[in-house]
Amino acid sequence: MDGLLTAFWFTLQPAALGLMLLGVSAGVFVGAIPGLSGTMLIALCLPLTFFMTPEMAIVLLISIYIGAISGGLITATLLKMPGTEAAIMTTLDGYPMARAGRPGRALGLGIGSSFVGGLISWVALVLLTKPLSIWATKFTAFNYFALIVMALVLIAIITEGSFLKGIIAALLGALLAVPGIDPSSGTPRLTFDLVALNGGIDPIPMFIGLFALGTAFTDLLKPKKEGEGLSTSYRGVIMGVKDYLRHGANLLRSSVLGTWIGLLPGVGAIIGSMVAYSTTKALSKTPEKFGTGCEAGIVSSESANNATIGGAMIPLIALGLPGSLNNVLLLAALLIHSIQPGPLLFVNNPELVYILMAAFFCANIIMYFVMVGSVRWVSRISQIPGYILFPIIVFFCLVGGYAYGNSVADVWMLLSFAVIGFLLDLGGFPKGPLAISFILTPMAEQKLRSGLQIAGGDWSGLYTEPLTLIMLLMALAMLLIPNLGPKLSRRRKRALDKIGSPTPKE
């Protein structure tokens, strides 16, 4: 507890508060623009974190993450254009309510619910992370290897797109992680005699290319859907005590659902909001009102999608397993500073964990006030034409890629992955499994090698250790149930078809 109090003192210093305000504001701004995303902004900011302390880097990136997830609800409500996937379900009731002459009320419910969802998931983050990390320290190398394999399979099958494309993307990410120096022999592998590949593929130029520049190329070619803007005022934007009491059970249930769904690697905020929305509708006495401007629908969607942020942070800190694209980039920021999330993070860098928790809490409060204060103008900003945004994005991508290592080779790497990202989008291949697999594959290899060295080359530990065997069998079972991923994808597609909006990127 002392560590958390010290962390709050750190985050309340002017420099940290300024970074949180900047990060949340930038996240809300980007999250509200269909075609841009928090992932893109975090990728662009990664080179900047190289010049920061690990603590300040985490403060900035977690603030962007929270702001971006929340910002999508403004344009989802006023323009029927969800800025992020997380806001898709909000559109179903937010936009009809706004059209009925209550835009302030719709926004107020969404902003207040986002705030509560974030705080409830923060409680889970504080209470569950350390016990989970202590439990994880008892893992053997084979246990950890099996856990990573299970996470990779789950990420590949529960994602946007088809089951097969998710698997292919994950395998491609694993292949991209192979070039470099073999950890056992010390000799180059799959470098094709390119000196630049001896250190492996650098994740920073790769992620900027995939998620920022590649996404910008894709969005530039997409036909734009004009939103039907609605003017709004501050009236009804702030939820009252009676509102919180009336929707209390829904807020708590949806936030808990979002938190637990966030714990699952690769599931994401959209699935969290869909499950919470469906559950609330199923339990409602008037389910026919959902989709027509129902308050409960907005509350369940927004509280759940923000709660997935805290849920996803728990396995990232305790196990070193990123559960979403944004978490991959947070992990990359830590790796830049030679900090490895996982079971020993509480032992080696406890102050960093507590600062992340404190920043998460404070950024949610800042998010609330930024959102309340920005509803009048952010929907107009979201209509900035692509021909203005695209050159700005390209410029910052190229500058960020070069500034990271002061190397032209990094710029060429960035451009190469921008092309790869564009082709993946064109072919409908999800980039999430690729990125997460790229990060987790070296960890899996290292744990497998360690296990084999400890066992003297004996592979039997993979099926004689009960926990290892259970996790590997679960991974196999998930591969043999190919309907799981497509079912979730179909639900997501139906939600998109219902609102008549092109698929946004997050």
From TrEMBL:
DUF112 domain segment(s): 17-434
Keyword Membrane: yes
Keyword Transmembrane helix recorded: yes
Transmembrane segments: 58-79, 106-129, 141-158, 164-182, 194-217, 257-277, 316-340, 352-372, 384-405, 467-485
Record Pfam families: TctA (PF01970)
Superkingdom of the source species: Bacteria
Keywords: Membrane, Transmembrane, Transmembrane helix
InterPro entries referenced in this protein's UniProt entry, alphabetically: DUF112_TM (IPR002823)
Name recorded for this polypeptide: Tripartite tricarboxylate transporter permease
Species in which this protein is naturally found: Salinicola lusitanus
